[in-house]
Predict the 3D structure of the following.
Amino acid sequence: MALLLGFLTAVLFGIGDFLAGQVTRRMPTLAVIFYAQAAGTLMMIPIVLLTNDTYSTDALIWGGLSGAALAAGFLFYFRALANGKMGVSASICGIMSAIMPVTAGLLFGERPGLLIFAGLVVLTLAIVLISKQDENDDTAASAKVMLEAATAGFLLGLFFVLIYVPPAGEAMWTVLFTMAGALFLTAAVMIVQRTSLQLTVRAGVLVTIMGVFQTLAAVLYIIGVNMGLLSVIGLAGSMSPLFTLLCARLIIQEKLSGWQMTGFLMALAGACLLVLGS
């Protein structure tokens, strides 16, 4: 069940990231993040009130820190998605975001079984292959875009670790403070940069959907990671580039290279190993 929640986290984040990549081509990145986190914060208020989770200073502090990492990660990530080839940017981000929870889980003393460890290795290699660029592709990502995607991955991986720190009984409060922290940090940067808040009706709908998906992803992730291993659920949650890539292929017909197709098939094999080992 925990592994399923990890993969659902990746699906929701992946679709949300695809929508973000489309919207940020037409409006400021900060505005997209602001509206998405506003939707997420509002969504979490009734969820917190309907649960028996406990409020604590730990939830406030760690949730706020994870929210700051989330907002900063989205800022770099959405810029990379908007300015470069979506599949490549998403995959580079995925590699970096996978490293953080896996490393943290191992440092915390987690020791996955042989099949799970094999699945972790295969999934990591899959993300590397998905990010491999065709030498003849004139739309390949620039060094700047790749750096933005890598920085985003580090920050989003940090989000996966920080949101896990408070006890399970404080989970929903932690998610609320994560969304609120991301919202307030984004608002502060927008005030300094005097970013426009204007958006069209279509963009507003897409950004709201994006915010709902991302918040649901955070909720499912924190439930799953409190049931299973951080190193496993964190890696499963960081597989969102696969679903961003699928959206790019199916909706905007972005071409996949042979390496990317191989990586996709390896990802399916890695997921099977995780399921068998769970």
Notes: The radius of gyration is 18 Å. The chain has a mean pLDDT of 83.
